[in-house]
Amino acid sequence: AAEKSGAMELKLAHNQTLDHPVHISLVEFGRLVEEKSNGDIKIRIYPNAQLGSEREVTELTQTGAVDLAKVSASALEAFESDYSIFSLPYVFEDYDMFEKVMNNENVTDKLYNQTEGMGFIGLTYYNAGERHLYTKNREVNDIPDMKGLKVRVQPSQTSVQMIEALGGIPTAMAYGEVYTAIQSGVIDAAENNETALVGNNHGEVAKYYMYTGHQIVPDMFIMNANRFNQLSEEHQEIIKEAAKESTVFHEDVWAKTVQEQTETAKNEMGVNFIDVDKSPFIEAVQPLHENYSNNENTAEIYQLIQEAKKDE
Amino acid sequence: MIAIAGSVLFISFILLMLIGAPIAVAIILSSVLTFFTVLPFDVALMTSAQRMITGIDNFTMLAIPLFVLAGIIMNNGGIAFRLVNFAKVLVGKLPGSLAQTNAVGNMLFGSIAGSSVASAAAMGRIMGPMQQKQGYKKTFSAAVNIASAPTGLIIPPSSVLIVYSLVSGGTSVAALFMAGYIPGILWGLAVMVVAFFMAKKEKYPVSPLPNIKDILYIIGSAIPSLFLIVIVIGGIVAGIFTATEGAAVAVLYSTLLAIIYKGLKWKDIPGILKETIEITGMILFLITSSALFSLVMSYLGLPAAISESLLSITESQTGFLLIMITILLLAGTFLDITPAVLIFTPIFLPVAQTFGMDPVHFGMILCFGLCIGNMTPPVGSALFVGATVANVRIEQVIRPLLPYFAAVIIVLLFVTFFPQLSLFLPNLFNL
Amino acid sequence: MNKAKKWVDTFLLSLSSILLIAMVVLSIWQVLARYVLNIASPGTEELTRFMLIWFGLISAAYVFGAKKHIAILFLREKFSWKTQLSQERLTDMLVILVASVLMVFGGIRVVILTSAQMAAATGIPMAFVYLSLPLCGLFVIFYTIHGMLTNKITGKEEVGV
Lengths: 312, 431, 161
Ligand code: NA
Ligand code: NA
Hints:
Chain A is α/β, with parallel strands linked by helices.
């Protein structure tokens, strides 16, 4: 083959399908790395959770069996409590604020380098959407509308507390069961980004989609720390640059996907999209903010984020 | 590189199995050896050790010990006898009525107990002596029992289908359960059709039906047992509870039933738990070893390579399916079902997906094909148990089994080439 | 030696039994919590999963002691008794190798690696979960050595599900 002799191969694992926006952006990352390094570094991608769940591939990245991985920030909570900050509802009021914070070096230095002792570092993040509330047949505009609403939540304490704070009844269940559960009325609502409506067909059973934007949980791009440190400075720079550029590239791919799927949900599935005033929701979850700012594990990152928000 | 590593994997695996190492140990050792060829010692070791843990870390997997436990409680709980009487009412007017009853009994009891072994043992013990009294040949009775015992592995609830769900990356258990009904019942019917002709040839008697009062009593006493299926499968399909929770409900229900029917005693419990632990300890360890095995295969890119070479032999879906069925039937002769499902799913599923096959339909072909191995020598659990309880030697029962074997393979071909047989019910319930 | 094996058997069986019963109870609790009491218990599922890991590995260790892991023996049985015995001893050595290098040594390495990791919903240290592997490795080694000393041989293949 025309392979450059001595080319280094980096293994990259993630759990999405080949047509998912993040896979496309990771392919772009690989292309950029190869181009910038003149073929010295090649990226081999293992998509589709071929090498395991997000926790498993994080562990593979720790041991060095894989070099790079894309995992949700929520999967990293178990490894480093700083990442739990993304579960805190309305820690970012909107996506612009999120972007501003995630491009602040005080925040990212802390977040990305904190885990070096555990064997991996962060390189960048990818937009994985804003989480919004959707219901089977009930419009939710304000906190009183949440009363008695049975909402499926992710299996984390923060998510449970969030729904409780908003007045709903949190129900923990596996994501794969949400469709049938909404259909049979076991739950009234779930919360996720727009792609759940079409990608998981939830739009067939849930007809109201409220733009509550309560959480923005990004995907994180991580790398085995030893592997990174062993690279030449030039190669380290290339990896970092390519990662950053692929994050920018990803914004467009993601936005396009969300737009397409929203159209499909609206026109083909009859889902109603509703803008809501976030302020009562933000107010209702303030006790959770106090928990985070008082907890010693999360106080520092919480503070850094608040400062980054104020920066000009 | 991939060729070397792949050879290490398969050659060491086969050698280890040939010297009689436990299959799980053969899987683990060959996987770790293969990892050593591509990763540093330390990394390979830690990665493998981790996967041995995370391979069991799955809530759905809990359904397996729970269903096994429920099955064992049922087996001890006087349920088999009531179902036999019920089966007799259903098919008692057919030629060879006791053999027909045995087949239906296996479908009902196997469906609840979820084990071909428990089913073959329970039915063989009850039906064998009755059949001999009416002049049935021992080998004929044994063949019917052995051929119909595996139906309970396909008719839900079914541990085999749960194992497939896990290893295929979370195919819906509810959908697989619904998919199992038609193929499983067709298997049972195929056995009954063959038994029909054999019994006619041998002029076996038709038993008289009990009087209407007895019939009503028999149906009445079978209802609580049958109701278990309604609760568990109904609950899972309606999304009221998960497969795992359904299995826990099955444990609860069968315990209550066993207490009412037979006065399940405290002293029976340790034995029941021990049997469950022995069976599930073996299965869970196999599953977690296979998680390591499939990690190694994916890491090397073997499924893609195998898939490519299969596609280079044949480009048609029909060709691929025929090759696959042949391999499954051959493997099933000597491999037990659980390890076989674990080994072959990651190899064949990616190919099936390139043809756009539904993972539920594919899983049904795979599990059905491998379950046939349950009744074939040299290693077949239904065969062993069925022959043992009938007090015949395995060699004696092989010839009488052949027509059943042929009939079940015909059903397998139908299941393979008519996807609707598997997909009709899941689609009907929107699963 | 036989007394020690009995003791280990009883210990592993009791622990597995307790875990099995607890998992049944927790699973039923989860259904009740959802429908009757309207509570989300995100920790229950995680806790149950960790119990399953311990249950699976402890039961697997016990099954090593009972020599009931599925093996394919019909080929081996064609050989002379002497050859069979040496195949059995070779298998025992391999089991000890896997248990000591992978389960015990590799397992301890993983426990150390994951020492800072906490489970998402319950906050249980992952090291505690991973500890099941080296521990079960030790029991497997014990059983295998016991089997070699008492000259036990795997019987006819046990029939599975
Ligand atoms: Na069954
Ligand atoms: Na067989």
